[in-house]
């Protein structure tokens, strides 16, 4: 009888240890999700800022139409589009992780 009780107590202790480990893992996962949400919000802000900037540049192109300024603005727009693409890629990856 004592052996059975001892085995039950050992099993119960193992269950509590396992439950404690799972709780710690869950806490780590929740922290990672919060960090990813912060990153996603930051990237969304950058994306909105880049979109506004591209819109402003597009309006500038319509106003100033010299060959040199169009070339410079075209280069800037290409750089911004690349940055925008990278930001959208980061958002997609974070959504997958989330």
Task: Quickly list its features.
2 domains, rod-shaped, mainly alpha, 2 helices, single chain, 98 residues
Largest sheet entry = none
Q: Can you give the mean pLDDT?
A: 84
Radius of gyration: 27 Å
Number of separate domains: 2
Helix proportion: over 70%
- What's the end-to-end separation, in Å? 50 Å
Shape: rod-shaped
Structural class: mainly alpha
H/E element sequence: HH
Number of extended strands: 0
Percentage of β-strand residues: under 5%
- Poorly predicted sequence stretches spanning 5 or more consecutive residues: none
Q: How many distinct helices? A: 2
Write up what this structure looks like.
This protein is mostly helical. It has two domains: 1-64; 66-97. 95% of the residues lie in helices and 0% in strands. The protein has helices spanning 2-63, 67-97.
SSE layout and pairings?
Blueprint lengths: L1 H62 L3 H31 L1
Helix pairs in contact: 1-2
Concise summary:
This protein is mainly alpha-helical and 98 residues long. 95% of the residues lie in helices and 0% in strands.
């Amino acid at each position: 009888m004592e052996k059975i009780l001892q085995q039950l107590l050992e099993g119960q202790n193992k269950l509590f240890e396992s439950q404690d480990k799972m709780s710690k893992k869950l806490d780590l996962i929740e922290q990672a999700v919060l960090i990813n949400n912060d990153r996603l919000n930051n990237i969304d802000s950058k994306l909105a800022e880049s979109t506004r900037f591209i819109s402003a540049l597009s309006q500038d192109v319509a106003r100033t139409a010299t060959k040199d300024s169009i070339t410079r603005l075209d280069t800037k727009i290409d750089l911004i589009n690349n940055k925008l693409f990278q930001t959208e890629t980061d958002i997609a990856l974070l959504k997958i992780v989330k």
